[in-house]
């Protein structure tokens, strides 16, 4: 029995994966054969076979191999324009395909000159970056506020690359790139403001409740107060020290979270705020809220242990374990959003290329 048959029996999906991989390799070889004939065809023939439509669809669906092969075998396609007067560069921007844009940009200084061209609507490349992303690209991003942030990142990174004069150029509708961006993203900006305020208001309520509970428990310590000395009865207990520290940290972090989310609610919500200011505040607010929940559960667990340590010490163990359930729920529901905000705000660059101005 061959190795292929053994894998097919051991792994039922192996044949399906093998067939899919084989079809993919065959499709790539077929494309190479087709692309070798393209340089021999006239412009009229290229329009007849639908080269521009095929290139557009490949960029739209992020088919990097298609673009890579056609550029290698037919480099002149970099300069080719479709019916709207847009090159591969231009369509990569309109369709928000950063990998394809980065690949074309790395081809060399000569090819980058295509960035200085305009389409038939007198849009320069900064105008194209100012247009709203296709819904298929926006749907991959959680929340309207982060979608707005992504749109601003595209616009700002292209602004750093393109000549300053592009910022003042007018298209056929007499709009500069900045005014076109505001016009195109008017609704998304409203949705982003609503999303950010709803999220901040919800988290602020939770942080306020935690702050109130922690403030109250600071004066009603477990075990009570010694009437003679006025000191807590379990003052010398290590568990009591853990309770005091955890209670204090929870109070401070929840209070900080309340103030941060209050700052989010009272922000001006200008376009540039969505780029870093609002996401940074939300990150700080979510992190301090998460920290306050963790320390609140630690304070609760230590209080239970102090109360039951002399008689039902074993009960405190399952109670302390159950106290991790709220932490787990918060981690599952809110932590992915916190991580996504961190990555999109501080760890993610759209263009993996030198930020040098074109002349």
Name the average pLDDT.
Answer: 82
| Quaternary | single chain
Summing up helix and strand content along with how strands pair, one would put the structural category as: mainly alpha
The parts where pLDDT drops under 50 for at least 5 residues are none
Encode the helix/strand succession as letters: HHHHHHHHHHHHHHHHH
Domain PGG: 193-306
Keywords: Membrane, Transmembrane, Transmembrane helix
GO cellular component, one term: membrane
Protein name: PGG domain-containing protein
Q: Can you offer a commentary on this structure?
A:
This protein is mainly alpha-helical and 359 residues long. The chain folds into two domains: 175 residues, Ankyrin repeat-containing domain (Serine Threonine Protein Phosphatase 5, Tetratricopeptide repeat), CATH 1.25.40.20; 153 residues, Butyryl-CoA Dehydrogenase, subunit A, domain 3 (Up-down Bundle), CATH 1.20.140. 67% of the residues lie in helices and 0% in strands. It has 17 helices and no strands. Helix 2 packs parallel to helix 5 and helix 14 runs antiparallel to helix 15. It is elongated and about 100 Å long.
What's the short version?
The protein has 359 residues and is mainly α. The protein is 67% helix and 0% strand.
List the helices and strands and how they pair.
Elements: H1 3-10, H2 14-37, H3 43-48, H4 51-60, H5 64-73, H6 88-94, H7 98-105, H8 109-112, H9 125-130, H10 135-138, H11 144-161, H12 177-184, H13 186-217, H14 238-265, H15 277-308, H16 313-322, H17 324-347
Helix pairs in contact: 2-5, 6-7, 11-13, 13-14, 13-15, 14-15, 15-16, 15-17
Pfam family, one: PGG
Organism: Gossypium gossypioides
Keywords: Membrane, Transmembrane, Transmembrane helix
